[in-house]
Amino acid sequence: MSVTAPQGFRAAGVVAGLKNSGARDVALVVNDGPSRAAAAVFTRNRVKAAPVIWSEQVIKGGSVRAVVLNSGGANACTGPDGFQDTHATAEKTAELLEESAGEIIVCSTGLIGERLPMDKLLPGVAAAAAELSRTGGGLAAADAIRTTDTVAKIAFRQGTGGYMIGAMAKGAGMLAPSLATMLSVVTTDADLPAGTLDRALRSATAVTLDRLDSDGAMSTNDTVLLMASGASGVTPDEAEFTALLTEVCNDLTRQLLVDAEGASKAIAIEVVGAANDFDAVTVGRAVARNNLLKCAIHGEDPNWGRVLAAVGTTEAVFDPDQLNVAINGVWVCRDGSFGDDRDKVDLRPRDVTITVDLSAGPNSATVWTTDLTADYVHENSAYST
Amino acid sequence: MSVTAPQGFRAAGVVAGLKNSGARDVALVVNDGPSRAAAAVFTRNRVKAAPVIWSEQVIKGGSVRAVVLNSGGANACTGPDGFQDTHATAEKTAELLEESAGEIIVCSTGLIGERLPMDKLLPGVAAAAAELSRTGGGLAAADAIRTTDTVAKIAFRQGTGGYMIGAMAKGAGMLAPSLATMLSVVTTDADLPAGTLDRALRSATAVTLDRLDSDGAMSTNDTVLLMASGASGVTPDEAEFTALLTEVCNDLTRQLLVDAEGASKAIAIEVVGAANDFDAVTVGRAVARNNLLKCAIHGEDPNWGRVLAAVGTTEAVFDPDQLNVAINGVWVCRDGSFGDDRDKVDLRPRDVTITVDLSAGPNSATVWTTDLTADYVHENSAYST
């Protein structure tokens, strides 16, 4: 189902030849309306890929007819020529749909620093336009945006009154705040204006996709796009829509986490007792990025000292003598010192929960990360060769 | 020669039984004067080990008679009882030297979150005091502070007029800003007051030990101590002394870099063209901490896109379209896009230099790091078991 679960959308995924593997590498998702309201969030990296620079302008209009996506090349750090390639891709898509290029979002993913083979990409876009469908197209599109993802990621939910939200995402390494190396397209047939979609998307991604930090690296290409066709005729309550969208984004986040490059553990870092939300997220990220801790979890070693060492690098409000840490429910650190017997911690399951209690207030946040493994090193030391 | 290269110092390193391996694990370095002027810098981690909390108070007096160091346990996150253990260690050392505990610095390194076996440590301190010597003691002390270090690290230099600076250090993983998992004792027989030593030490470590970032993790125990005996009778010019001290610290930094856990590459990140020093160091650290880049260098892949992606996460002054990057002298990125042929980059040597030109000003800084390897993962996933 994916992005074509809601009414009013068609999609396609085709082989254009950008990937040496011969796998699908160009996807197209078209909104047939009646509404074209849309919102998007992008990477916060200051080094932005050409498609991000383009799409940031497009989304300002609040109206999107289609998104064209390619894997097999990020089109980042490619200079003015690379930007022209993005422009040409949007123009080609617009021409095929008999639209203005100003309503075409472009997304790219793959290696940074190389031009896209336009002689393959543009025919691929035409092929995708010819194959647009509601049945099958959604899954093919989700497949076409994969890079090192081992599986396609899709999600959908139905809301009150029968409107739908559908989604696809890709992302395996370089998952970090600001949605790194992540492309995601979310569709809905709810009838909502762009301003509401923007608020809902920012709210939903802030507590889901933006809290996934697999390796602390931030990508140049991240884009999460939300398009609404209005085809269901339902205008849901904003709070209800936001909650359902958050569920969909949470589902995608979980899939990205489990499929992160080389990971053998899915780690939730729950920070509680924080003085404010910012502190909770900051501490969560600091723990999530600690390579030594990530190695320890890989070795199934409940090395809570590394958690405290990570917490101590932040400016969050806490007293070192009042920090508590639980690993998979066992409070191995109490009041900044050793607590319950660390031998009671069972780290064999894939899911690991590290709870950090700052004892400084009522706020909390969860950040997700993975363990650091030899497989991660292998996969990322041979990526571009 | 190590810390006993300068006149006025004796040292020892003994087996107290803290390490299961049976290797040396307690070291003592004593300043026999006539001066006892001293200065120190410590970790900036807010979760500080008991010996750091103790020693921060001692150094305020500007006078240090001796430093007692142990490997085999960090005495961090051990609560009030752990602090009493540090206090007892200082008292025992003071008693053996017939001194005040208020002039005894204590350093510990090893696993966080476990009490030290005081029934072994205190007899070890007594054994070390009985073995203090100028010949042999310096090397034994350098050996005794090793944890996962494969070799003992020592350095010494002679200054104008014949005064000496000697040093020992340990540190293998968790090397990060704020001197992580690093213990270093530097001695000199120059005759300088504590205030001068403090300025010189801060200046020297800021551009050497503090710019080594092997894995972004910050330790709870880092201490760099400088003790001056005045025994040479020479009072060097402050600038000259600072320069010589910087040389010694640079020598130690290089040794720590080459011996970092699991590393196969020693990477210098030279940031040039920065608007100010802060920007230069910030960008250097961001690049040094990028796991994806560290994996690429391990794979001998000149993946400059990952350099730009790391630079783009900072708030430094730069225009993405004016960034230049050289890897081992080949300018693979010019004006934010691809430059010279990346196939010209030879990444086979152990030493790798990544030059980032921000094109934003006249300032520069160098930060050192290592590659990310499967060996690093293996070593750190089994450390505490």
From TrEMBL, chains A, B:
Name of the protein in question: Arginine biosynthesis bifunctional protein ArgJ
Site residues (Involved in the stabilization of negative charge on the oxyanion by the formation of the oxyanion hole), renumbered to this chain: 109-110
Residues annotated as catalytic: 181
Main EC class the enzyme belongs to: transferase
Subcellular location: Cytoplasm
Keyword set, alphabetical order: Acyltransferase, Amino-acid biosynthesis, Arginine biosynthesis, Autocatalytic cleavage, Cytoplasm, Multifunctional enzyme, Transferase
Gene coding for it: argJ
Subunit relationships: Heterotetramer of two alpha and two beta chains.
A GO MF label: L-glutamate N-acetyltransferase activity
